[in-house]
Amino acid sequence: MAFENFRQVFTELKNYRKPKLCVAAAADETVLQAVRDARKEDLVDFILVGHEEKIWRMAMTISLNLGGIEIINVRDPLEAVQRAVGAVAKGQADFLMKGMVNTTDLLRAVLNRESGLRTGNLLSHIAVYEIPGYYRLIYMTDGGINITPDLEQKKAIIQNAVDFMRSVGLERPCVAVLSANELINPKMPSSVDAGRLKEMAQSGEIRGAEIDGPIALDVAINLEAAEHKGLESPVAGRADLLAVPNIEAGNLLGKSIMYFAGGKMAGLVLGAARPIVVTSRHETPYGKMASIALGAYSVVRNESNS
To answer: Which CATH architecture has domain 1-119+272-306?
Structure first.
């Protein structure tokens, strides 16, 4: 199922049992605004781990009713992270969200061999965009964690994204491995890697997706552009996932979508035992709520299909 917008995700999520989200270092006003809005939508239940006095003070400021929400009072942000990750690892919550804490500190706890959510997979970021005038949500990876991934890392990044997309109903997503054009050029490493990734998909090394590359952005999202260039591709005009060559390309593309096109973004970290909601501190409460909804939907849909 290809969602047209985040509102459809909110609606579909209500067909499943309500999952529980644990927020690490929850004394963050925009995070608590997302908690408030998600409660109004009745999307998930919460455990808030953090400085309880600050959480209550912020909740009063933003009209968040904390009745029925479990709060674990931990003043130190790093200790709050450890407690939150532990709650998810022990099954007390279904997935994790970053509050007022550095992403590096959160992921360090996630990767802890004894008490974390480590799986052995590479951690990677997936962004999901709702773009005015575009007919469905579009996914992008990895514009948030891996800076200059090598070929094997790109393979893992794409597999993480494909597995997640399948978990939210895209049975065989179309993946465009982006470069400047459709020709493999030894002077353009992104095009060489894109060609190899296509071969990996054809040989079954990357599972569950239709992959083409190298492919330019216009061809990936616009069939007329492919026809004009005389290109035939199963991905042309149908790309569900845009796989960028490095974090710089992902950052530029993502911010262009948001600031020039008025897009809304949801963001998750993949590769751990459960999805992790990690958004920018400048992200809107709506974007944070959309991230919560996608993480929750992935959890409960996987559960129902297992």
So the answer is: 3-Layer(aba) Sandwich (3.40)
Entry pTM: 0.95
Picking from 303, 264, 40, the residue whose alpha carbon sits closest to that of residue 168 is 303
Per-residue confidence in pLDDT tens, the chain, 306 aa? 789 999 999 999 999 999 999 999 999 999 999 999 999 999 999 999 999 999 999 999 999 999 999 999 999 999 999 999 999 999 999 999 999 999 999 999 999 988 899 999 999 999 999 999 999 999 999 999 999 999 999 999 999 999 999 999 999 999 999 999 899 999 999 999 999 999 999 999 999 999 999 999 999 999 888 888 888 889 999 999 999 999 999 999 999 999 999 999 999 999 999 999 998 777 788 999 999 999 999 999 988 886
Q: How far apart are CA 124 and CA 126, in angstroms?
A: 7
Token representation of residue 128: 């999901």
Buried b (16+ CB within 10 A) or exposed e, 51-64: bbebbeebbeeeeb
Count CB neighbours of 182 within 10 A.
19
Domain with CATH 3.40.718.10 in the chain: 122-269
Residue 269 near residue 145, CB atoms below 8 Å? yes
Q: What's the CATH fold of domain 122-269?
A: Isopropylmalate Dehydrogenase (3.40.718)
Q: Which residue has the tokens 């330019």?
A: 216
